[in-house]
Specification:
This protein has about 280 residues and is an alpha+beta fold. The protein is built from eight helices and eleven strands. It has a single domain, classed as Beta Polymerase, domain 2 (2-Layer Sandwich). Helix 4 crosses helix 5 and helix 4 runs antiparallel to helix 6.
């Protein structure tokens, strides 16, 4: 299977997972919004960014918690809702909806004994204090805990500064599982405010936005699906990406995942014949 064929198959499965997710949210009357490259793709391409391999959605904390509680009984049998509670070695404060019988092994997670199926990311959206000391204290504490969680990821080129931070975090928070739980309590219990954050997103403080930008949302087309996006998606995209209407240079048109192994048809770690296809290994999309 060529790299382009593999990427097409991954997108096909991710789109199936997104369809399952949307149907579940509609059935349970849960609110969600497209985020990140998925939002950008919906606006700029009416679907996937051609060179990307990712789907990101976010949910207000209350809806997110209902999803975690009610979804497992309603999802198709081959869908697995992964969190640090359902998959204890998964060291993160957000969820992934994964497809069983497939493999998408990110290099940073390759040493974790977790479900490694193809997935979409589901992020909780939490309230955030207004700009000022309270926000700075919250972000400092959250980032210390995040440093502790990052020790569970595989980082082949950690800088000395990163290693020192991780050592300090391990001394402060000896238990990784306790750090995951503590960070979740920290992020989920902020009082209602005019600001909403995706604390687990890739863009850091750029994903702290006025709550009004999300609003009740609106729908855009995404690969033929009707996908809910923030009400003021233009403001959201401008804050995160700058001039989001311009295509990046061709040299930058690649996905952000660094993968160890991809197989749309078989689960990790036992591909057919227990022999991994070398053409599928170590791809950076």
């Amino acid at each position: 299977m060529t790299q382009d064929e593999s990427l097409a198959r991954v997108k096909q499965i991710e789109l199936s997972l997104l369809r399952d997710f949307i149907e579940l949210c509609n059935a349970l009357n849960l609110q969600y919004f497209a985020l990140g490259g998925t939002l950008l793709g919906a606006v700029r391409h009416a679907g996937f960014i051609p060179w990307d391999d990712d789907i990101d959605v976010g949910m207000p904390r209350g809806d997110y918690e209902r999803l975690l509680t009610e979804a497992p009984a309603l999802l198709p049998e081959n869908d697995f809702l992964q969190t640090w509670r359902t998959d204890p070695e998964f060291p993160a404060n957000f969820a992934k909806l994964r497809r069983s019988g497939t493999a998408f092994v990110e290099r940073s997670l390759k040493n974790r004994k977790i479900h490694h199926g193809i997935y979409i990311d589901i992020f909780p959206l939490d309230y955030c204090p207004a700009p000022g000391r309270a926000r700075k204290r919250l972000l400092l504490y959250s980032n210390l805990l995040l440093q502790r969680l990052s020790c569970r990821f595989y980082h082949p080129q950690k800088s000395i500064k990163m290693r020192l931070r991780q050592i300090a975090a391990c001394l402060l928070f000896p238990s990784c599982s306790a750090a995951v739980s503590r960070r979740e309590r920290l992020l989920s219990r902020n009082p209602e405010s005019d600001w909403v954050a995706n604390y687990c997103g890739a863009w850091g403080e750029r994903e702290i936005v006025p709550a009004s930008w999300y609003g009740q949302g609106q729908e855009l087309s995404f690969e033929g699906l009707r996908l809910r996006v923030p009400s003021d998606y233009r403001a959201w995209l401008s804050q995160v990406y700058g001039d989001y209407t311009r295509l990046p240079p061709e040299s930058e048109r690649h996905g952000h995942h660094t993968t160890e192994y991809i197989d749309p048809d078989h689960a990790w770690p036992e591909p057919p014949g227990n022999a991994r296809d070398p053409d599928n290994r170590k791809r950076s999309h």
